[in-house]
Amino acid sequence: YQDEMLKLINRLKLDDVVVVIKNPPRGDVIAAYGQSEFLVLPSHWELSPLVPLESFAFKKPVISTKSHGTPYTVQDQITGLLVEPENPKELSKAMIDLLENKVLREKLGLAGYEFVHKECNSVSMAQNSLSLYQEIIKNNPNK
């Protein structure tokens, strides 16, 4: 699949506007986020996707699929756009929609940024873990 995608990007002369990142150094990833308008993550399987959180940290919205854990990270029409897996027409429409709508891109990107800063910091994560453990202890019949 990846080889076909790269050939298509080349054939359509999109090399200067489409960046495909394959095992790059960390600095290259950070630079790519800075240069991008949004992230496309057309995964078939993501249990706990962290890449969208990185994108949100750069105020970049995410286009991804409604597969597995992704909807728990990317909220459709709030922090990004979610499409059905294996639906290239829907995926391409979402990409065109974000390319053509700067206001929507910025709105979704800012919402993602706020989500990361509110929910994905050490204080929130520690409080959530503590609440979970307290609930487990409270409901433990073997007290």
UniProtKB/TrEMBL annotation:
Transmembrane segments: none annotated. GO terms for molecular function: glycosyltransferase activity. Coiled coil: none annotated. Gene3D superfamilies: Glycogen Phosphorylase B. GO terms for biological process: lipopolysaccharide biosynthetic process. InterPro entries: Glyco_trans_1. The keyword Transferase applies. Keywords: Transferase. The keyword Transferase applies. Residues 2-114 form the Glycosyl transferase family domain. This is Glycosyl transferase family 1 domain-containing protein.
